[in-house]
Design brief:
Rossmann fold, 4 domains, 7-stranded parallel sheet, 6-stranded parallel sheet, 25 strands, about 35% helix, globular, hexosyltransferase activity, Antifreeze protein, type I
């Protein structure tokens, strides 16, 4: 009896991403010496007579996989089933597969915004699959987009993979004009719905070129013409890797109702070193390695990046590195090993580790716990560090904040721990709950380090004592209010180390952390984004919906969860409008109350809003740690209105220090005439230029990378010690 390592069950006639994903996994398995069987099951949604995808036929032809016989029994250590639409009807013939473990990969959403069950009913599919293959099937979504729409799925996504080495094209030849392109199967939902959106994303301009591989006829039909600068190539006429060598920017926008499960073509473009310009909804999958905007923002973004070749190279390199790290072959081999289908010695072209029978070691993550702050400050600091951790020690986020959904959208594996307020528990009972949940998460994820951006609640201290084989670190922001927090400082002994983010206003810090710096590891101020991650001014304005010829101001006075921010908003907005400014009101992603309306101002709800700061001329902001340091670091003229109702954070001292340093203006009492006097200064161009120059002189760095290195070092030390 032949036992294969992996059996893949699917309909191998699908022409697009399903077959490309299967081919990538089979090649990775073959390179690691694993034997793969392909079990073909016709989908009721594919017409009879269709051939196998050329990608699948090539695998069988080259001996990288064996096609299971319809009447035989396939034995495998792991069965992977792809494409849920196969099971929308009862199967005429149920394939006989005997596997040690079975994974059902949900690589398509059940429906779209207009019809949530357009493609399949999840409950019906689940019932059929469990009847055919048993109740112990692991249900794994391909992406956070699918996870967010279905209940009871596996802890980890069965994400797409790619071998970056097969897609790299070396140095690209730069032409006279930028070339925008896209490739994919012909399907109307894969294109913008309106002609206006389509021409914004793929402009008809003599100094731009557009190349389309597959589906171009759909766009031409929508436009009623073929733009002169468009080169339309039929699907299959060029190999995607060859096509990607001919374009400079990969631009992909689709029908707004479509729920795109992953975005395989985006992954391929990034692996080939082509900057990808896509919609914000893809951020949970591609993080900060792609460029995000709306169709209207494509042309300004293309022109800004084309004008800066060095930045273009950085963006392309960052994309390749991201894809290799998160979606490379090693990630697939690791998940196979976790499910009993680890690598075996191979006789051909296997990596050295596979030839010697060594399975990839499971990464030991850094578990990052944040408090339930009224804003996203605690969580954002941890995400800033987490996105810079190495692959061998990835971040797992655990948060008491409503912002758990934000962390998931940013691509982090995220656990939500309800706060005491949410649960309505007495303090002692909640401490026991918190301890129990933390111990469970440590046992589940096996972190090498737990990093806590929170005050040390009793439940955290108890969990640290109960799991001493893990390194516990307190990420302790400075600048506490004088006379507060002594009870928290007294619990520092519960931690193996303290990491302190830098503070520009440190000289004005009179809080209890100042005399408690012995043995504390300090870094520069921690920012979520680096300067290179910010959208260029034109692209930022387009994304924010701003006119290019009028100054623009943003009001971000807090999450709306601490105190009443409504009263000064109207006065500030009116003053700015009278001065000719476009006014935006930033609404926090976790605000429990809607942003108060202000005539002539528009509410924006984006995370992180800092990505678009270069499109603004002025920001009126609370002086919380994150916003304060972002505005100074990125040279944005600011008026700080400190929040006085915080329990620990000394926003008043921070804002006063920035004003004294000449880096910002400050309004301590927005109810008084001080507000109008300071705003009258802030709207003057020469004042804003002076503030921007002063910020440039200060030149704040970003300590997130150094913090990630330090935590990764602690994690590596923990692993070496055998803890």
């Amino acid at each position: 009896m032949t036992v294969h390592d992996v059996a893949i069950l699917s309909d191998f006639r699908y022409p697009g991403g399903n077959s490309a994903a299967i081919a990538a996994e089979v090649r990775a398995q073959a390179g690691a010496g694993l034997r793969t069987a392909l079990v073909h099951v016709p989908s009721p949604h594919n017409r009879d007579g269709l051939p196998f995808s050329p990608r699948i036929a090539e695998l069988i032809r080259d001996g990288l996989a064996e096609l299971a016989t319809p009447d035989g029994v396939t034995h495998a250590r792991l069965l992977v089933i792809r494409q849920p639409r196969i099971f929308t009807e009862d199967l005429a013939v149920v394939p006989r597969v005997r596997a040690g473990h079975t994974v059902m990969v949900l690589n398509q959403a059940p429906g779209d915004a207009g019809n949530p069950t357009r493609y399949y009913d999840f409950d019906e599919v689940r019932d059929r699959v469990e009847v055919y293959f048993g109740p112990a099937v692991e249900w794994a979504p391909i992406s956070p987009q699918i996870r967010g729409r279905l209940p009871g799925l596996a802890a980890d996504d069965w994400h797409e993979i790619i071998d970056v080495a097969q897609w790299q094209a070396g140095d690209r030849t730069r032409g006279e004009v930028p070339v925008i392109g896209r490739h994919g199967r012909a399907d109307p939902v894969k294109w913008p719905r309106t002609a206006d959106d389509l021409l914004q994303a793929y402009p008809d301009r003599p100094d731009l070129r557009v190349r389309v591989l597959g589906g171009g006829e759909i766009a031409i039909r929508l436009l009623g013409r073929r733009p002169a600068n468009w080169d339309v190539v039929p699907f299959g006429a060029e190999q995607p890797a060859d096509f990607l060598r001919t374009i400079d920017f990969f631009v992909y926008f689709h029908d707004p109702d479509l729920v795109e499960a992953f975005g395989r073509t985006i992954l391929e473009a990034m692996a080939a070193g082509v900057p990808a310009i896509i919609g914000e909804h893809f951020r949970p999958i591609f993080g900060d390695a792609a460029l995000y905007t709306t169709p209207a923002g494509v042309e300004p973004l293309v022109r800004d990046l084309w004008a800066d070749p060095e930045r273009y190279r950085r963006v392309a390199g960052r994309a390749r590195d991201f894809v290799a790290g998160r979606y490379g072959v090693a990630s697939h081999l690791a998940r196979l090993a976790e499910r009993g289908a680890g690598a075996r010695p191979a006789a051909h072209s296997a990596p050295a580790s596979a030839r010697h029978g060594v399975s990839p070691a499971r990464p030991r993550p850094v578990l990052m716990l944040s408090d339930n702050g009224a804003g996203l400050g605690h969580l954002s600091r941890l995400m800033a560090i987490g996105r810079r951790l190495p692959e061998r020690h990835p971040a797992v986020i655990a948060t008491q904040s409503y912002g758990a959904s934000v962390a998931r959208r940013e691509g982090f594996l995220t656990e939500y721990l309800p706060s005491r307020t949410v649960l309505g528990m007495a303090r002692q009972r909640w401490s026991g709950f918190l301890r129990s949940r933390l111990e469970h998460l440590v046992d589940l994820h096996r972190p090498a380090v737990v990093a806590v951006d929170s005050v040390p609640h009793d439940g955290i201290v108890a969990a640290a004592a109960a799991r001493p084989d893990v390194t516990w670190v307190w990420v302790r922001r400075p600048m506490w209010r004088r006379g507060t927090g002594a009870e928290w400082i007294a619990k520092r002994a519960a931690f193996d180390g303290i990491l302190e983010p830098g503070e520009f206003a440190a000289d004005a810090d009179e809080g209890p952390t100042v005399p408690d710096r012995a043995g504390v590891h300090t870094v520069q101020p921690i920012l979520l984004l680096d300067r290179a991650d910010l959208a260029a001014p034109g692209a930022a304005r387009a994304a924010l919906g701003l006119d290019a010829d009028r100054p623009a101001a943003l009001l971000q006075l807090g999450a709306g969860n601490i105190n009443d921010i409504a009263s000064p908003v109207g006065r500030i907005a009116e003053h700015l409008r009278e001065a000719g400014f476009q006014v935006l009101l930033a609404e926090s992603m976790i605000a429990t109350e809607p942003m108060p309306a202000a005539p002539g101002a528009r509410v924006v709800k984006l995370y992180p809003i800092s990505r678009y700061l270069r499109g603004l001329d002025l920001v009126i902001s609370a002086s919380g740690y994150n916003s304060f340091h972002e505005l100074l670091a990125f040279g944005v003229p600011a008026v700080f209105v400190p929040n006085r109702a915080t329990s620990l954070d000394d926003q008043v001292a921070r804002a006063r220090f920035a004003a004294a340093a000449g880096a910002a203006l400050c309004v301590e009492d927005p109810e008084s005439g001080e507000l109008d006097r300071v705003l009258a200064e802030a709207v003057r161009p020469e004042v804003r230029e002076r503030l921007a120059r002063r910020c440039a002189e200060i030149d704040l760095g970003n300590g997130a990378e150094a913090a990630a290195r330090w935590l990764a070092g602690l994690a590596a030390e923990n692993v070496r010690s055998g803890a």
